[in-house]
Amino acid sequence: MLKATLLMDSSDAEAVLSSLSPEMGREVPRSRVSGRAENGRLTLEFEAEDISSLRAALNSYLGWIRITEDINGLTGDEK
After folding, report:
1. Domain-wise residue ranges, the chain
2. Buried b vs exposed e over 5-22: b needs ≥16 C-beta within 10 Å?
3. CA angle, corner 45, sides to 50 and 59, nearest 5?
4. Are 46 and 58 in contact (CB under 8 A)?
5. Distance between CA 54 and CA 46 in Å, rounded?
C-alpha cells in the first residue's frame, strides 16, 4: 500500500475540508483519503494500491482544493 500526506496551511482549512468531505466518504476501489483541519492547517492522508491510483487521487483533491479556495475568494468568505 502506498501512502502520501498533504499538509496545507490555509485560513480556509475548515471550509476546504467541509467541501471535500463528501468525496472522502465515497467508495473508490483502489484508494482511500482521510482528512482533518486544525489551527489553520489542512491534513489529507492518501492510501492507494498503486502509483497510478495515488497520483489520480492527489490530482483530484488538489484540483478540488483550488476550486474551493477560488470560490471562497470570489464570495468574500476568506478569513
Report:
1. 2-75
2. eeebebebbebbbebbee
3. 60
4. yes
5. 7
Residue 62 near residue 23, CB atoms below 8 Å: no
Whole-prediction pTM:
0.87
Q: What is the pLDDT of residues 44-54, one digit of tens each?
A: 999 999 999 99
Residue carrying C-alpha cell 497510478: 52
Q: What is the pLDDT of residues 20-47, one digit of tens each?
A: 999 998 888 899 999 999 999 999 999 9
54: enclosing H helix or E strand: helix 51-75
What is the fold, at CATH topology level, of the domain defined by 2-75?
TATA-Binding Protein (3.30.310)
